[in-house]
């Protein structure tokens, strides 16, 4: 499939051929859901923590004798039944991450790119480079191009001035091609990829023919 290439000042810069195996798939919600769920689970801090009975700061003295009181038997006041006592089976620090095959992750990225292309939300930019890292200049360009919530994916490295200009611009995220991921692509309205980014993504996600080494 072909896509029009534009410049940052809204000029035309020719056309580019996009690989149908990466940008022309019929998006599957189940695959996208699996990859996003894997990403978000991996990003969870897992630092939630409560104090158990052995960690609360209270006297360990038996509060009253075992028999003869007419009440229930108790040891110390660190028991979960008492106020300020320990918590029974509460959350403890752990990792929420789970495994997902690399092939599924790569397939999810292909489907995310295809979803944006199919919805007409994919923009191919000639180059994401600026002479000065001025936020106002990039904000004006984004406004004229109609970009509100946009993710810009560049090649192997992001232009320093462009990254500096986008740093304080709300709604504009910039990533190198190696950082392209399903969650960030789907959460932004518009996906902008430079020509260098297209080449890097196609090299990264190239489908190997069956039977090849």
UniProtKB/TrEMBL annotation:
Pfam families in alphabetical order: Ribosomal_L4
UniProt-recorded Gene Ontology molecular function terms: rRNA binding; structural constituent of ribosome
GO BP annotation list: translation
Keyword rRNA-binding: yes
One GO CC annotation: ribonucleoprotein complex
SUPFAM superfamilies noted in UniProt: Ribosomal protein L4
Keywords: Ribonucleoprotein, Ribosomal protein, RNA-binding, rRNA-binding
Residue segments, region Disordered: 64-98
Matches recorded under NCBIfam families: rplD_bact (TIGR03953)
Protein family membership: Belongs to the universal ribosomal protein uL4 family.
Function statement: Forms part of the polypeptide exit tunnel.
Assembly description: Part of the 50S ribosomal subunit.
Name by which UniProt lists this protein: Large ribosomal subunit protein uL4
Gene this chain is encoded by: rplD
């Amino acid at each position: 499939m072909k896509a029009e290439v534009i410049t940052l000042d809204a000029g035309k810069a020719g056309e580019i051929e996009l690989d149908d195996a990466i940008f022309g798939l019929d998006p599957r919600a189940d695959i996208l859901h699996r990859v996003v769920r894997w990403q978000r689970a991996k990003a969870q801090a897992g630092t939630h923590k409560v104090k158990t009975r052995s960690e609360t700061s209270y006297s360990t003295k038996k509060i009253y004798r075992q028999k003869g009181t007419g009440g229930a038997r108790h040891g110390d006041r660190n028991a979960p039944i008492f106020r300020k006592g320990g918590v029974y089976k509460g959350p403890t620090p752990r990792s929420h991450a789970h495994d997902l095959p690399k092939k599924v992750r790569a397939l999810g990225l292909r489907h995310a790119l295809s979803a944006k292309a199919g919805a007409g939300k994919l923009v191919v930019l000639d180059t994401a480079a600026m002479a000065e890292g001025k936020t106002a200049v990039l904000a004006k360009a984004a406004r004229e191009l109609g970009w509100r919530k946009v993710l810009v994916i560049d090649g192997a490295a992001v232009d320093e001035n462009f990254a500096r200009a986008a740093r304080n611009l709300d709604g504009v995220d910039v990533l190198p091609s190696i950082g392209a991921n399903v969650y960030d692509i789907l959460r932004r309205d518009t996906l902008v990829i430079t020509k260098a980014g297209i080449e890097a993504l196609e090299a990264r996600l190239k489908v190997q023919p069956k039977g090849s080494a």
